[in-house]
UniProtKB/TrEMBL annotation:
GO biological process: regulation of DNA-templated transcription
Coiled coil ranges: none
Entries under PANTHER family matching the protein: CRYPTIC BETA-GLUCOSIDE BGL OPERON ANTITERMINATOR, TRANSCRIPTIONAL REGULATOR MANR
Gene3D superfamilies cross-referenced by the UniProt entry: Mannitol-specific EII, Chain A (3.40.930.10), PRD domain (1.10.1790.10), Winged helix-like DNA-binding domain superfamily/Winged helix DNA-binding domain (1.10.10.10)
Keywords: Repeat
Domain of life: Bacteria
Ranges for domain PTS EIIA type-2: 501-642
Protein name listed in UniProt: PRD domain-containing protein
Organism, scientific name: Microbacterium paludicola
Amino acid sequence: MTRRRQDRVLGILIRRGDWVTAATLADQLGVTPRSVRSYVTAVNARVPGDEAIESGPAGYRATGAAAAVLRAGAEVDPGTPRERLHGVVRALLDADDGIDVHETADRMHVSSATLEADLGRVRSLLGDGAGLTLVRAGSRIRLVGSELAQRRFVSRVAHDEMDEGAFDLEALRRAADAMAIPSEALGAFKTDLVARLGELGYFVNEFAAADVVLHVAIAADRVAQGRALDAVHGDPEPARARLADIVGELTSRHFGVELGQGDRLHLAALLLTRVVVPGSREEPAVAPDPRIAAVVRTAVERAAESYLVDIAHDDFVERLALHVQNLVHRAREQAWSRNPLTRTLKSAYPMIFDVAVSIAGELSVTLGVPIHDDEIAYIAMHVGGRLERSRRAETMLTATIVCPGYYELHELLRSSVDRSLGRSIEVTGVETRVDPDWSAIDSDLVLTTIEPPVHVTGLPSERIVRIQPFLTDADVERVTAAAGRVRRARRLGRLRAELARYFAPGAFLRGVDASRGEEGVIRDLGALLVAQGVIGDDYVDSTIERERLSSTAFTETLAVPHALKMTAARTAIAIGISEQPITWGDARVHVVALVAFSESDRPAFQTVFEQLVEVFGEPESAQRLVRRGVDLSSFLDELAAVIDG
């Protein structure tokens, strides 16, 4: 039993914030429910006199102590594979002439075969394009590559320590400690750095700031060992030189290390391309590179046309182009910017994320740079920010206040409703009669200070919320909850109407072969739609290409593969269900909905896409559909039942 598996259980429960069944946890971990129970027992054993995970009929749920236990979870026991890996990596980085396999194995009190297996894990971490290789001569093995590549490797290993934890300074300290990087001064350094950047008029990307601080700590550690970067020739631009001076000063103060010009300018470049937000107050007139701006404009306009979203505006294009300009610099340096919101953005806003994938795909091809999921998530944040205003207008509900007149009582109540709920509810009418025509009220909600008749024709009870003449906090909570129910019913009602049209008879596959993998399952489901003349083989190939850009596993149960271009003869959905989890990107899904969209049905894209993901985002609903959907008819019946609540 590994500590990492225990921490993964904690991470899933903390993110969910609600009850999760043992079966769901087992699917996510690729183990049995019995193993999950043993992990829970082990986690709770780490909290004497308390528990981090509570058990109940509905499964498991994280308690208030869970976050603290997870933060402490990175303190691995000496001698574990994870600890050995860190030791091997550190030894390879510190020794210019490499390490002797047998001597290192003896020092770590393991067999040579065990150490060889650890070296295999190091090779897999290096991967392609890392700029590092392991070179062997007899029993001696060394790491060959530039100093910059070695530092990037240290950062990558440290980031692996943070996968299941929060992306904060505590997680950063644990990650640094795991690689023997000085971590005591990380918090103070970051505080001073952000303050100095603010004094210069810069806006700061807090998500990336902690990451760059880790790079500073790595640089300080390497320089202290006599492994400085070469000085940069030529005069740097003023902004970079100014930031280089700040980095040098703060590193000396907090880490006690004097950085040379090469290190200071390198770290300043990281700040400019990762931490300083484009368009800061310091340089309000800064303009993106004309070529990058043109490429971004083309990608944005095509995405706007394909998805019918209102994003093709000059200010949006310019700001995104500045971001992409920095992205290109990061790609050249292989210095990717992590985004802790990637998973949340993908599951909560799948349509926005898909627009970002479309933009990123075109940028990647045209500019010749790879764009990873975390970078796509930053593009999605730009897109979401632009669409937020129109999205808010779409979700605004109308309300009628029923408050029999008595002096200015109804006016005071309306003022209170506007003040407390005005961002989500628009009051379109006020009834001051004691006997209003209830059936004539057509707003989304009715906020009433009096009891309506028992039976009101045309006015469902879920739309009526009883409130006090003087609005209380409890009233606000009840209205907010009722508004949420109305919005959900509206969204899912649209979904039910659309899905009945789009599920293709005969395009349902129960018992999908999980071993076929992403591409194999896409081809199996695509063949069902090809046979019906809905799509051609080119659409299937395009769907596979889209999948390679970014995984379409938008929830922990569902993947929605689709092409970026809407070239199907008609919109149709092919469903595949597997009782065994299918490895899909970083997720393990049970349901695959291959969606073929046609140009004529573009307005339905957002409805079908986002609401389908919403339904499967609820673990209990997803498990019910997987368990009971034995054929298309029963699957649709269960889907309708889930939608209707």
